[in-house]
Amino acid sequence: MRVRRDHVGLVTSLCETASHRTGVGRDAGRFGRVVDSQYSDCRGEARHGDDHSVIATVLLARRWTILSEIPVIDLSQAPGERAAWDRPSWVVYLWAICELLFVTNPWQISSSLRIRVLRAFGARIGVGVVFRPRTRVKFPWKLSVGDRSWIGEGVWFHNQERIDIGHDVVISQETFLTTGSHRHRKDMALVTRSITIEPGAWVTSRCVVLGGVTIGRSALVKPLTRIDRDVEPNTVWDQSGRLAVRFA
Fold it and tell me: Around Cβ 169, how many Cβ atoms within 10 Å?
């Protein structure tokens, strides 16, 4: 079977469309030369009935071209995380020591002592709050917790931006709340967005809450759920991050 030129033309067109969508493929002439070269090299095989070898070769050549043109950010030139430091360095380092001794330390069993240390570094924590061991707080001056809320063991507030928690909120064990991300297609600079958890909400164990979201009043987030968008009040959200139940 002799390979038809329109087969290669179709593959070439599809590859060009894909490269346009990914923002590469700026050198169309070079791609054309690669295709012509591969076509000529494989045409003999195609005469023996192997159309697929030509198509596979063209696709492989285009894949190599696309991969070679995708930019990679030099991380040594990326802005550092200190963009989120809004306190002097000595305060940040002193907090790191106190966090290790009094907050994260699993042997420190006093919730009230843990809360006093957090308040000393600027956290706003209401009355009757329970703050369990092995918790982590990136910057306590960017954290507020309302009255009677429960913070479970191993909760991590990676709060490079504010995290505001209402009253009577439960955040269960090993949940991770992060307000930071990076401009991964530009320069890996830090991007921060706050998190708000309204009164009565329950974020159960080992959830991930991303920056920029609000978890509504008396909502429930099931275990192992990733929250990357707002959660409506008085609803239940499951592991897929979708609404599971809406209460009347």
Answer: 24
Residue with tokens 């995380």: 81
Residue type, 98: C
Q: Tokens standing for 100?
A: 């290790």
Amino acid at 20: H
pLDDT tens for 63-121 read 666 666 677 777 777 676 666 778 899 999 999 999 999 999 999 889 999 999 999 99
Q: How many CB atoms lie within 10 A of CB 182?
A: 16
Buried b (16+ CB within 10 A) or exposed e, 119-155: eebebebbeebebbbbbebbbbbbbbbbeebbbbebb
Average pLDDT over residues 199-223: 96
> How far, in Å, CA of 33 to CA of 13, rounded?
14
Average pLDDT of the residues of the chain: 80
Contact 150, 171 (CB under 8 A): yes
In this predicted structure, the answer to whether residue 39 has a pLDDT above a threshold of 80 is: no
Q: What's at 199, amino acid-wise? A: P
